[in-house]
Design goal:
- By secondary structure, the protein is an all-alpha fold.
- It is built from 8 helices and 2 strands, in the order αββααααααα.
- It has helices at 4-30, 45-72, 86-104, 115-147, 153-183, 185-188, 197-200, 202-231, and strands at 39-40, 43-44.
- The protein has a two-stranded antiparallel sheet with strand order 1-2.
- The longest helix is centred in the middle third of the chain and has 33 residues, at 115-147.
- The protein is globular and about 55 Å long.
Length: 233
């Protein structure tokens, strides 16, 4: 039987890492040239949404860690692998998720000479956190399967399907973006964050937006399904 607090911990992590964090990363990596005509508080829409999603990921992470530490009465040490990797991977990933917004406070102007260094640090912290989050959640779902009285292998399979879906979308957007740069090479020699792709090619822009709307809907559906299965386990 899975304790209720552990279920809450898992549900928060699924929302924080499988939905909010992934959406924030997708927007920052692939949609900087979209919605240029829409501003919120003087900031680009992608940037505001990126901050919102990542902030929600931080909130979910902090609450989830607090709950599991409270339940375990401290740091939980597990003996056998891969379960023993769950707490340290979770704490490292959570720490990086908390650290990255602090790093973002030192974000310099796009034309500043240190901007490439900032971009690489911010990207690396986010990627490592995301990678560790995937392995941590997978281990957590294996632990849930072990603790449950019924067969819960479908939970892990569904989560892995969501990871594959995310990777497919990421790869597609990478190739799509590369082809975009090649097509508009002369334009992209300027600061790419401020290029309005919608003005260059409205059909491509609409298609790229559709891909994000699809990603948002499917990632939300995956997360809600996983949360529902975990809550009812």
């Amino acid at each position: 039987m899975i304790p209720e607090l552990i279920k809450v911990h898992g549900c928060l992590m699924l929302f924080g890492w499988n939905f909010f964090l992934n959406n924030g990363i997708i927007l920052s990596r692939h949609y900087k040239q979209m919605w240029q005509q829409h501003k919120l508080g003087g900031f680009a829409l992608w940037f505001v949404l990126h901050q919102l999603f990542n902030s929600m990921a931080v909130v979910c992470t902090v609450l989830a860690v607090f709950i599991v530490v409270y339940y375990s009465r401290g740091y939980s040490e597990l003996d056998s692998m891969p379960f023993a990797a769950h707490p340290p991977c979770g704490f490292i990933s959570g720490s990086l998720i908390l650290l990255n917004p602090l790093v973002a406070l030192f974000r310099c102007q796009p034309t500043h000479k240190m901007r490439p260094a900032f971009n690489w640090v911010h990207f690396t912290l986010g990627t490592v956190a995301q990678t560790l989050a995937v392995s941590t959640m997978a281990i957590g779902l294996i632990m849930q399967r072990q603790a449950s009285e019924s067969d819960q292998s479908g939970h892990l399979n569904l989560y892995l399907a969501s990871v594959v879906f995310h990777c497919v979308i990421e790869l597609f957007l990478e190739f799509f973006g590369y082809e975009e740069i090649v097509r508009y090479r002369a334009v992209f020699q300027t600061v790419s964050d401020h290029i309005n792709v919608e003005e260059l090619d409205s059909k491509r822009a609409c298609f790229k937006k559709f891909i994000y709307y699809l990603y948002f809907a499917v990632s939300l559906a995956f997360t809600l399904a996983l949360v529902g299965l975990l809550a009812s386990a």
